TrEMBL record:
Residues 59-80 are annotated as: Disordered. Residues 481-691 form the Protein kinase domain. Signal peptide: none annotated. GO terms for molecular function: ATP binding; protein kinase activity. InterPro entries: KIB1-4_b-propeller, Kinase-like_dom_sf, Prot_kinase_dom. It comes from the Eukaryota. This is Protein kinase domain-containing protein.
Amino acid sequence: MESCGGCLPYLLSMRTSRNTQPTPRSAFSGAMASSSYRRNRPAALASCSSKRPAALTACSSRRTRRRRTPADDTDVAAANRGDSSSWASLHEDLVDLIGWRVLASDLRDYIRFRAVCPHWRSSTICPRGRGIVDRRFHPRRWMLMSEGHGIYPGHGKLRGFVRFFNLSTGAFVRAPLPFFKDHCVLDSVEGLLVLQRDHDTAVRLLHPFTGDILDFPPLETLLKYLHPMLLGDKWSYIRSIRATSINVSANGVVSLMMMQQGMTRVAFAASGEQRWRVSIWDFNQYHSPLPFQGKLYVVHHSTTYGEPEILQIDPPQMEERTDPLLQPPSLIAKCPASTLDTVYLYHLVECGSEILVVSQTFNSAGHAQFSVCRLADLILGRIVWVTSICGNTLFIDASGKNMCVASKAFPTIVGDTIVFLNRRKPCLAQYHISSGTLSPTSDGSTLGNLIPSPCSIFYHIVTCCFREYWNKGHIIFQGRLKNWRVRGKWRAGDDVLHEGTGRPKAGNSKWKQQYHDILNIWKSLIMKIMTNIDVMKEILLLSQLEHKNIVQYFGAKKEETVLSIFLEFVSEGSLVSVYEKYQLEESTISAYTRQILVGLAYLHHHNDIKCANILLDLNGTVKVGDFGLAKQIKVWKQKRSCAGSVYWMAPEVIRGAPYGRSADIWSLGCTVLEMLIQRPPYPDENWVSVF
């Protein structure tokens, strides 16, 4: 066996050169070492055995290596005989233990460790073939990098390579992956890529560094589980994955759990199966799903002012001779409840080996404030707010993926901060946990998606939180999101909006109607502008609203006599367009009503509740709109004004009597009746004579 006397100095010099001269090919230098490299290694080992200080110089030098001669072989043999402290004498178990310690740091370090000499390579387990079934080989902190400009994985300009970067070290790797010619990325879990094969929609799990791949059932088998009231292309819901969790059982069976848009059940399957199964229980009002150690964690808002619950979904029981079963979620902790004066939103983030719970609140001026605690403390029934997260940075988004990034690896990121989209500016902002202050992360505003190109690595990291940009090779806030440029038949539906205008394409009557529904919803606000009423007060009110059941305000811009207001585009239109096409079931109406109540509780008062003012997004989430008559108030005040649509008005509103919160309850009841009978309540009545 070849001597290992110089292995350790050789490894140290290799690690030193990695930090000073990083190259995209360095991560694969061990696994893909050339034959000439192995032939010349004994000469380096011989020089390392003679003098320890000179070994570092010899191994790290860039001198042109001369051809080996028989004299060199004689010198190596003599060095082997005279090496009294040969590293080859290390027991295989000890080498294996050192290897696992190296692997705990990073998979790339483990590959380098095995590349040092044959003895170390033969004494440790090869990750190839075990990259998925052995969780120790998962590249947890590695993330696929979005190149920008629509250069998606598989694009011709990449020449079959895909770049990855490490969220903890900032290292970059360029890996050859030919799979993307007929595959697209759906999600990433523990560094593994969740792919869809285009022609049959089969889900495949790929290890980007070892090339290991496992097959799962086609997405087509999930179509029947979509909510029947969802509009548009149903494939867009199936391919929009909110969270994916991977679990490896004791007998080596790999299973996946997925939470998708438009589904009220969790999908799960084992590798090699032919169809996806779903949970026998439904979920509603689940927020911030987080995969962690083979399980799914979610925040559940059961009631408006109740304590939000953190639930744990265990992996399916894949036992032999029995049908797989997914147990209902188990309650593990409760969070402080919202009040009439304070609204709490909670986010779950994986940070190191633990889960952090991020509490987001809003003060009277509408500014966001954050607090962070550990889930382990909440499970014990105590709340301990932390002021430091070990120099890490949390990227938070209510509709995307939450991430933790080591700030020391990226010079443009500030440590102990929370990065989020500040919709009041709008811009990306960072909240400093220790001081409680807020500052912008960059000079550019996100309004109009005008971030210049090229941009810093910061925006590449932010893009990873938004899968619809990340998997298409786009950078968020750099122009509008475009659809797949290739193989769109299998990856997405047709683009229904003209690029750059936000208007429906010609010939698309359904989207035309929904587009005009959205314009009509803001009719009252436009009328205020035309009648010269003080609009700035209403805009200030809109800027303070930030809730998942409220149509989002993004900003306003005034040019001479033109005032432009930027609002969230809710693609599915109003509930009127829904019930005109479909007969709503009572369960659907109940779900919509619950979400309306959550939005109203945040607004405190609306006064003009009807189906035309209620919107539906791609996820089936209800959005309350038309804030021309809405008021966000701290104390319920008695008002004397006649505002709202008469068919939904409470009697005291029409009579001009003082009214309060009860008027909204009346209007909500009329809205529920409207969804049931598919028309305004009592449309044939003379409303003047009634009251």
